[in-house]
C-alpha cells in the first residue's frame, strides 16, 4: 500500500503517543532484527524504533535498509526515531490499516 500525504499525517498523529518498541544498537542492521521487526508489525501495524547512541548507522541508512528488504514503510524520521507502518498479514489485527484505507 502506497501511502498518501493525509494517510501519513494520520499515522504520525497515531504514533505520537507511542513509545519505541525496537532499537538499533551497536550490532547494526541484521536479517534477524528485520524479521523480528516484521513479526511485531504483524501484531501492531504501527511502531516506533529508535537508534541508540552507540550505533554506527544513520536514520537514513536504516530507512533504506528496511524499505529495500521488506514491505515496511517508514512514515516519519525525527532525529533518531523512526515511525514504521505495515499492513498486518493477520486479518483480525488490521485495525489501523482499515482506518488508513478509509482516508
TrEMBL record:
Keywords: RNA-binding. It comes from Pediococcus cellicola. Gene3D superfamilies: YhbY-like. Residues 1-97 form the CRM domain. InterPro entries: RNA-binding_CRM (IPR001890), RNA-binding_domain (IPR051925), YhbY-like_sf (IPR035920). One of its GO terms (molecular function) is RNA binding. The keyword Endoplasmic reticulum does not apply. It holds the Pfam family CRS1_YhbY. This is CRM domain-containing protein. PROSITE patterns: CRM (PS51295). Transmembrane segments: none annotated. It comes from the Bacteria.
Amino acid at each position: 500500500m502506497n501511502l498518501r500525504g493525509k494517510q501519513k499525517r494520520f499515522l504520525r498523529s497515531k504514533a505520537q503517543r507511542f513509545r519505541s518498541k525496537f532499537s538499533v544498537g551497536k550490532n547494526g542492521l541484521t536479517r534477524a532484527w528485520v524479521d523480528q521487526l516484521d513479526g511485531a508489525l504483524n501484531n501492531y501495524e504501527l511502531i516506533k524504533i529508535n537508534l541508540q547512541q552507540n550505533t554506527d548507522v544513520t536514520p537514513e541508512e536504516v530507512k533504506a535498509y528496511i524499505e529495500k528488504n521488506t514491505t515496511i514503510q517508514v512514515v516519519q524520521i525525527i532525529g533518531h526515531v523512526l515511525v514504521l507502518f505495515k499492513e498486518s498479514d493477520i486479518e483480525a489485527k488490521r485495525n489501523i490499516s482499515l482506518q488508513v484505507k478509509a482516508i
